[in-house]
Write a structure and sequence with these properties.
Length: 364
């Protein structure tokens, strides 16, 4: 048992809180996208040059669109110069794309939705920093917990930087996808680190004697990879929907997915492969009754519930003109699915981990 029980327990609680906060941010980010609030604040980190956003257009100068378009152009040139310095070529055509500098009309609701999104992001930054500090107590016992916490902290900083680029480039599609994937990576790192800390503190599965078929691990790895691919496909479809929506307008909302075409049909068909692979995990619980008494089975039930509900929200979006409420829920379900799969893999690989700490509580 760790002598510094207070700090180790603090780390576990902070880590879990941060994981929940990241998922909340993913949900809010989905709301930002579905309501078209991504450019509610044309600058970053402030909003219309203020730490407290305006509530009425009268609080802004009459030429505010020109002001922030010019600021964005100057920032993009600085970003391009920096990237070029490190060998990442930025297309001149991209920088001269005038659509990147089109300012939306001021909308107080969209401005505050985006601003709340940023506030939650700042809150996560504070949580992750506190988690990093708390992880120092594990340095002598398991350095990887500290390393994972440190990497998560760095990635949150990169997320904030990418967020500024997303605003500066007027929601540049590829950056949005990377932004989403980094959030998932942060969640997985924290799940792994908190799981190791919990096992060290309470040894939840250290004495589990149930042999796990190696093929079960392979199937779960396949399910995780497919879920990540599906998340990328879904994000790309969402980016293309934004382009179609801008071209055709709100009145043609029912035809948006039809206009997206093949990428949408691939994304939709891919969901059945996810059902097949994730459902295939049930075979192992059917063959090995003892596994049904473990947390793995409870997680499997949760896994299938998320897959089914995700397909249902996808059907709702496909046949009911992409209702705004369904979009962030669908995104959250996809990221939750990856988190559950990753935690199941953690349990499978950590079940035989040896520690020097006496168990106090059985999780499985």
């Amino acid at each position: 048992m760790l002598n510094t029980n207070f700090y180790s327990n603090l780390y576990i609680r902070l880590g879990l809180t941060t994981i929940i906060a990241v998922y909340i941010l993913i949900l809010i980010g989905g709301i930002v996208r579905s309501t078209g609030s991504g450019m509610g604040c044309p600058d970053w980190p402030q909003c219309f040059g203020q730490w407290v956003p305006p509530t009425d257009v009268s609080q802004l100068p009459s030429n505010y669109k020109d002001i922030y378009a010019q600021k964005r152009k100057q920032k993009n040139e600085r970003i391009a110069k920096t990237l070029n310095y490190f060998g990442v070529e930025v297309s001149t055509t991209l920088l001269q794309d005038q659509s990147m500098y089109e300012e939306a009309d001021f909308n107080a609701l969209k401005t505050w939705i985006e601003y709340i999104n940023r506030l939650v992001g700042v809150l996560i930054g504070l949580f992750i920093f506190a988690t990093l500090l708390a992880s120092i107590t594990y340095w002598r016992h398991d350095k990887w917990i500290f390393v994972a916490s440190f990497i998560s902290f760095i990635l949150v900083g990169i997320e904030g930087w990418l967020g500024s680029i997303v605003v500066s480039t007027n929601l540049l599609p590829n950056i949005i996808t990377i932004h989403m994937l980094l959030a998932v990576i942060i969640v997985c790192l924290l799940i792994w680190a908190v799981g190791r800390a919990y096992q060290m503190q309470y040894k939840p599965i250290g004495k589990l004697k149930i042999p796990i078929p190696s093929t079960m691990r392979y199937v779960l790895w396949l399910a995780l990879v497919l879920s990540i691919v599906q998340l990328i496909l879904g994000t790309r479809v969402r980016e293309m929907v934004d382009i179609v929506a801008k071209a055709f307008g709100e009145n043609q909302r029912a035809n948006w997915l039809t206009e997206v075409g093949l990428p949408f049909y691939i994304h939709r068909s891919f969901s059945w492969l996810l059902v097949l692979v994730n459902g295939g995990l049930g075979y192992y619980f059917y063959k090995k009754v003892a596994l049904r008494q473990t947390i793995l089975f409870r997680l499997f039930v949760l896994l299938l519930s998320i897959v089914i509900s995700e397909i249902l929200t996808g059907v709702v979006m496909a046949y009911w003109s992409i209702p705004a409420l369904a979009q962030p829920i669908h995104l959250l379900q996809g990221s939750l699915l990856i988190g559950v799969q990753f935690f199941m893999l953690f349990l499978l690989y950590e079940k035989e981990k040896k520690t020097n700490f006496a168990p106090e509580k059985q999780l499985i």
